[in-house]
Structure formats: structure tokens, C-alpha cells
Amino acid sequence: MVHYASCTTVLQSLSNGYTLETQIQDPPPTSSAPDQHGPRGIALLAHPLGRLGGSLHDPVIRTLSHRLVTLGYRAVAFNSRGVGQSSGSPSWTGAGECEDIQLLLRHCLETWMSDCERRAEREVDVVVVGYSAGGLYASKLDLDQALRGYERRCEVRLRLVLVSYPLDVVWALSIFRTASYTAGLEKLLILDPATASESSESTATETVAPHPASLLALYGDQDQFTKVSSYDAWVERLKCLAQGQERVTAVKFQGADHFWRSKELLDQLADTVERWLQTAS
């Protein structure tokens, strides 16, 4: 088994021809899952808009990555196209970044299942953190596509953490493609009965994740780009879409803006994610 005992930089080639700079770290064996067969799951972290200086070195990404490692996850932070050592250039609509995170998630799952073979026979816990524009790209993940063709059948649970989701400016970050991001997030939260039926009839050579995602939305009441009233209404809509189940959790931070500048706020952010993951487990 490959064990990333310290934060390790890996230039990951994707099947679409792009290369992403990633930083990977595993928890020490003593903080891994109780069965000691490796990390409890994967945590993938997406940073804010690269065109405006976002990178895997962002304090929010680094803080949450470190906390997720202490909780027993293999943390994979990455630079999007055109940032750091990643190839290409940022796209104007986010379409390229959405494709990249999808392919990177598939690679992470394949690698994790290989490195942690015995644990992968039962379940995979996947946490995807998207901060600001990174939340846009995370919201369009397609788990069915990412899992298609696996040799083992296992249970995959997606836990989506959106930090300062740029709700009121999605139109600007995507060149008026807001609807596609809205639909992507809704698809993650709603279990399609047809998909569930297909999952129950799938063969032993397929891996299917019939479970809709759980969502934790974190935002400040002083966000510079999205009104707090917009956030509040958005959360209520997502809860309705989740049909009243406790799969949508939102925490509003008093005094926090879009950038989470103080160590106190960063610690509160990490503590909130930790409590949510422990409750959701």
C-alpha cells in the first residue's frame, strides 16, 4: 500500500490530456479507520478562482485539509488549470475545471481502492470541499460517471462541503451558465428512483452509489459577493429538494466574510466540518 506520510506533491495526468498539481497526505496509522486497513476515505479539496489568485495554498484549503487528515481521510488538494504547476489555462465558464475535478475524483477512487484494497470491499467515504468558485466545480460532480466500470461493488457516500458558495455571482463566474450549476447541485441531492432501481439490479462487476449526497453549506453574514438573504433562501430551497431529510445542513457565521481571514474563524470552520462529519458518520 502506498502511504503518504507527509504532504507530497504529485503531478497527476488526467485522461483529457491535462496535468494537475496535487498535494496528497494520509493520516498516520493510529488515526486511520478502526479496522486499520487504511484511511477511512478520500477528501478532495477545490480552491477559489485561479484567475484571482486562488490555489491549493489558500488558508481555508490548507486548514480543512489538515483537519481532514487528522480525522482519518486521505486529503487531496489540487491546483486547477493554469495555477501553480497545473497545465492549461483557466476557463471562462468553469466547464474545463468541472471536467478536471470529475476525472481527478475517478483517479483518486481508483488509486484509493488499490492502495486500501481490503477496506474498499465495503465502503468508500468521499468528502469533497469546494471553497468559493471551487464549490461551483464540486457541485457538478457526477458520481455515476466517476464510479462506472469498477470491478468491485461497494457503497460510496458523498459528503459535500461548500464554503462561501458564490451564489449571487455564479452568472459572472460561468458566463451566464448559472442554470447548469444549479441543476448539477440538485442532481447530487436528489436520488432518482430510476437510478436506485438500476442499482439494485446491477451486476457484480459494477460499482453503484445510489445514495444522494449530504451537504454542509458554510457562509458568513458579511460575505462580499452574496447577500445573506440569498444564502438563507438558497438553503431553504435545498432542504425542500432533499425532501425534508437531514441531508442539508447550513451554518451561518457571524462576522465572517468571503475570505475567513482570522485564525479564529478558520478554527471555527474546521471545528464545524469535524462535528458535521462525526454526526453524519
Please tell me about this protein's structure:
- There is one protein chain.
- By secondary structure, this protein is of the alpha/beta class.
- It has one domain: Alpha/Beta hydrolase fold, catalytic domain (Rossmann fold, 3-Layer(aba) Sandwich), CATH 3.40.50.
- It is built from ten helices and eight strands.
- Strands 1-2-4-3-5-6-7-8 form an eight-stranded mixed sheet, sandwiched between helices.
- The longest helix is centred in the middle third of the chain and has 21 residues, at 95-115.
- Residues 31-35 and 193-210 have low confidence and may be disordered.
- Residues 59-242 form the AB hydrolase-1 domain.
- This is AB hydrolase-1 domain-containing protein.
- Residues 21-40 are annotated as: Disordered.
In terms of structural class, how would the helical and strand content be classed? Answer: alpha/beta
Q: What does the largest sheet look like?
A: 8 strands, mixed
Total count of helical runs of at least 4 residues: 10
Please tell me what the overall shape is: globular
CATH architecture: 3-Layer(aba) Sandwich
- Indicate the percent of residues in helices: 25-40%
Q: What would CATH call the homologous superfamily?
A: Alpha/Beta hydrolase fold, catalytic domain
Termini gap: 25 Å
Order of helices and strands: EEEHEHHEHHEHHHEHEH
Strand order of the largest sheet: 1-2-4-3-5-6-7-8
How many discrete domains?
A: 1
Q: Rg, please?
A: 18 Å
What's the CATH topology label? Answer: Rossmann fold
Average pLDDT over all residues: 87
Total DSSP E strands: 8
Strand fraction: 15-25%
* Oligomerization category of the chains in this entry: single chain
Unreliable residue stretches: 31-35, 193-210
**CATH top level assignment:** Alpha Beta
